[in-house]
Amino acid sequence: MIDTKDDLLLRGSMTTIHAPRTRASMVVDDGSACTHCGTLAEPDAPCLVCGHGAEDARVGQLVAGRYRVEALLGAGGMGRVYRALHVELGEPVAVKFLLPEWSMQPEFRARFRREAVVLARLRHPNVVSVIDYGEHEGELYLVMEMLRGVSLASQVMSGGNTLPFERVVRIVDQVLQVLEAAHAMGVVHRDLKPDNVMLLDAGDRTDRVKVLDFGIALLEESGVDKLTAAGTLRGTPQYMSPEQCMGRNVGAPTDIYAVGVILYELLAGLPPFDASSVAEVIAQQMFAPPPSFAERPPPREVPAGLEALALRALSKRPERRPTAAEFRDALQRAAHGVDSTSLAARDAAERARSAGLSRDERALAPAPREATHESPASDVGPSPRVALWGFSTERGAALRTALAAQGMTAFVVDALGPLSPDKRPWKAVLVGGGAGSDARIRQARAMPELRALPVVVADIPHASETPALIRAGASDCALASVDDTAVGQKLLRALRRGR
Fold this sequence. Notes:
The chain is an alpha+beta fold and 499 residues long. Helix content is 34%, strand content 19%.
C-alpha cells in the first residue's frame, strides 16, 4: 500500500479532524536542521531546500524476522508506511507503523489494531489486503500488499480537465462495491476521500480501484463506537456528512455522503464545500445547500441524472440518501441517460398497472423491462425460481411482487426441497432474517442441489448479525430497513455472480 496522504491531525478540546496542509506547513521551528545544508526542517522529513533525505532508523531493519524495511513511502496523521521485502518470498510489501507519539495511548493502539481487523474481515478485491499484524520492538505494525498506482486525488482536474463521465462512473461504482460489502458487515469507513482511493492499471487501460485507510472505521456490531468519545469529530472536513460534523449518528449514510462529495468533485472539479477555515467548511456541510454545477465557475455540462444523483447523496438528512446498492443501480441508470424523474414516473405507472391485478397476478407478472432497467433473462435465464424461506405469508407475498417486477418467480416455502413447486430447479434462496436464519443457510448449503446457489438473507434486524450469517454461508445480506426493490437487486447481482 502506498499511503501518500498529507494530513495534519488538528487537536482541540473536542475535535480530532484531518485537514489538508501545504508543503510549507511541514517546516517547524523545533531546532531540527538538515544535516546536509543546515536548513531548518521537520524531523525525519526530506529537506525542502536541498532535498536531502533524513536518515530513518527503521530502514534496514528486519521486522518479525520476515520483512526487510527498504524505504519510507509516506506518512500520515497516525502512521508511517515503508516499502519492505518479504525475505523468504522475495515479494515487496508495505509495512505501516503506528507513530511513536500515539503508540503509548491505548485508544490509538486499539484504532490501529481495528484497522487490521477490518481489513482482514473485508477481504474484498477493491480493498487493500492485509498480510500480517504484530508488534516490533514495542511498536505496532501492519503488513499490507504493495500497490502501484496513483491516488484519485491526483487525477481530479488532471491536465486542467475533469475526468470523462464513463471513467467517473467506473471508479465510483467500484468504491460503492466496497461500501456495499463493508456496510453488510457493519463496517463504516468514515474517512472516504480521493486521497484514500488508489487507481491501479488493470492491464486493459481501465482503472482498478483500491480503497485505503480504514484506520478510523466504525464497527457497528457493538451499536456504538467504543473508541470515540461522544461529541468527537473524526474525518476530513470537505468530505464529512452533517451528522459526522455534529459528532453523532455516524453510520452507513455517512459513507454515502462522502461518495456524493467525491462524485460531485470528479464531475465539477471541486468539492461542493470549501473555505479558508475548518469551522467554515463544517458550517457549510451542516447548513448550506450544495451549489449546482451551473453555479460553479466555469459552468460544466454534466448529465442531469448524474447531477441529481450526486445531490441526492448530499442530502442533509441521512434517511434521504441512497444505500450503496441503490447508489450503484442509480449510477448505472444515470450513466445511460435515464434520469430519476423519468424513473419515478415509470415506477408510478407500473404501480398503477399492478394495482388492478390480483395478488397472485401481481406476484407472477413481470414488469416491463423499461420500468426496471434490468435484463435478468439475458443474464440469469428466463424467470429464475427463487425460494422464499422463513417469511410469513403476508411478507412473502410482498417479496414475490417485488421480485416479479425484476423478472424472478418466487415461491414461499415452509420446507426447502431440491425443486420449486412447479418442478423447476431453484436458482436462488432468499432467507428471512431473525431466529433460525443461520440454520436455514447451513441446511441449504448442505443440500447437493442447492450447495452452489446464491443464498441471500433479507429483513435482518441488526447489522451486528451479518458477520455470523456470512460465516454460515450467506452470499449477501439486507437489513430490514432496505426496501424490497433493493433486496431484489441484491438477489439479481448474486444470480449473476453465480453464488
